[in-house]
């Protein structure tokens, strides 16, 4: 049986190969996640080209917080 670390490494390699197209709106890549967090924290750097992205984030209802805190706000 593989260790959790080995399975994690395989999964980390598999994800970008399978879902690597960052243009897919249903896929939140690490890079997109970091950009969402920056936007929600108010530190998004480039205001000129992110109006569509801001709208997308708002329409998805993304929030920052612990899972229990976010779930309770619905």
Automatic annotation (TrEMBL):
Domain of life: Eukaryota
Stated name of the protein: Nucleolar protein 4
Species classification: Eukaryota, Metazoa, Chordata, Craniata, Vertebrata
Gene responsible for this protein: Nol4
